[in-house]
Amino acid sequence: MSNVCLTLPAFARKAEVRRGRQRLEITGENSMFVGHYSVAFAVKTERNRIPLWVLFIAVQFLDYIWATLVLLGVEKLRVIKGFTAGSMLDSYFHPYSHSLFAAMAWSAIAAVVYKTFCSRHGCLHSNTAALIVGVAVFSHWILDLVAHPRDLAIYDDTWKVGFGLWNYRDPEFALEVALLAGGIIVYLARNVMPPIRKTATIGFGIVLVIVQIGDTYVPRTPLTDKATAMGVWIFYTLFVVVAFLVEKIGRLRQINAPWS
């Protein structure tokens, strides 16, 4: 009788673990994703005149570096079903792209490159534009700090931090969508544009939310580390192209409009 009493709780605990794993396995392979683009939308103004597509690159620049280094085998990634409730990505070694010191360095480099290029080509329309690009790059690390488990190093591969919102799938998704919506609202309020571009921007935002829904809630087989990194390059660049095209909508019509 005593053996049975000891066995039943153990069996129940194992069953609960299995149910927990099943719940985790319906999750996607996402990281903090569309929330990063909220910064790109929010900081774009008529005054700084930074192209939206440039800001789309800036806010995901650290991930571009990360994906490249994963492809080269320098940084390490495991894709594990059920790693957290909101992500399958165990990026257990990424000090050159996602440590705090590295993020600060890449942000400074991005600002210097933007200022140097635009100064030479006459596209630096604001003294603060380069600083804004640098801040956009660094915003990636701040938002990752909220979402990631403790895998973000302060320096090299030590002193790792992360608030772990990935462990709470629904709140993490809600934050992503709220940030994106807020960024788009600020973008539409601060920039003069024809109605057709406003409609296109809202449509783009809806597409990003749909992608985030699929990324968060649609179950799928984990990819390899290299395939995941290549997917980052492909999809992030696709969104950069769409951002470029959205800003072009209505511009040709404005240029060719007859003088009144």
Brief account:
The protein has 260 residues and is mainly alpha-helical. It contains eleven helices and four strands.
Which key terms come to mind for this protein?
260 residues, globular, disordered N terminus, disordered C terminus
Protein described:
There is one protein chain. The protein has one domain. It has 11 helices and 4 strands, in the order H-H-H-H-E-E-H-H-H-E-E-H-H-H-H. The longest helix is centred in the last third of the chain and has 24 residues. Helix 2 packs across helix 3, helix 2 packs antiparallel against helix 7 and helix 3 packs across helix 7. Strand 3 and strand 4 form a beta hairpin. The chain is mostly helical.
Number of domains: 1
Percent range for helical residues? 55-70%
Rg: 21 Å
Q: Structural class per helix/strand content?
A: mainly alpha
Q: pLDDT below 50 for ≥5 consecutive residues: which ranges?
A: 1-29, 254-260
Write the layout of secondary structure elements.
Blueprint: H1 2-24, H2 34-43, H3 52-59, H4 61-71, E1 76-79, E2 89-93, H5 95-98, H6 100-121, H7 129-147, E3 152-155, E4 158-161, H8 169-190, H9 195-217, H10 225-248, H11 251-255
Antiparallel strand pairs: 1-2, 3-4
Helix pairs in contact: 2-3, 2-7, 2-8, 3-7, 3-10, 4-10, 6-7, 8-9, 9-10
